[in-house]
Amino acid sequence: MVKKIQAVWGSKAKSDLKTIHKRHSDKEYIKKVTSTIVANSKQIVFAEQYQEDEILGLPYRRFFYKHWKIVYKPKNNIIQIFRVFDTRQDPNDFH
Q1: Which of 3, 4, 65, 92 reaches 20 to 30 Å from 44, CA-CA?
Q2: Going by CATH, does the domain composed of 6-89 fall within 3.40.50.720?
Q3: Backbone phi, then psi, for 37, in 5-degree steps?
């Protein structure tokens, strides 16, 4: 039997979600976006499901929702959500 992957949100990722809420005026839209991002993180079936992050490299992986990039780091049956990043930003601001 395959063990279920658990998504754990890191402090930077939590802070990113709070910042997203603060910066957007359409609160209903952004609530939907962040809810979907959280829900999608719970849908990861296996740690290597998504591609290696092109900026951070392994062990970091990433998936997208609309123009949001969600970076995670797999370890055993846990994925730590590392960052949530608006891809319209300068990638150098990502670190």
Answers
A1: 92
A2: no
A3: -60, -45
Judged against a pLDDT cut of 70, whether residue 33 lies above it is answered with yes
CA distances from 58 to 32, 73, 77 (A): 30, 8, 17
Over residues 70-92, the pLDDT tens digits come to: 999 998 889 999 999 888 877 66
**For the chain, domain boundaries:** 6-89
Which amino acid would we find at residue 65?
Answer: Y
Measured from the Cβ of residue 6, the count of other Cβ atoms closer than 10 Å reads 12
Residue 51 has pLDDT above 70, yes or no: yes
Question: CA 31 to CA 26: how far, in whole Å?
Answer: 9
Q: What is the DSSP string of 7-76?
A: EEE-HHHHHHHHHHHHH-S-HHHHHHHHHHHHHHHTT--STTSSEEPTTT-TT-EEEEETTEEEEEEEET
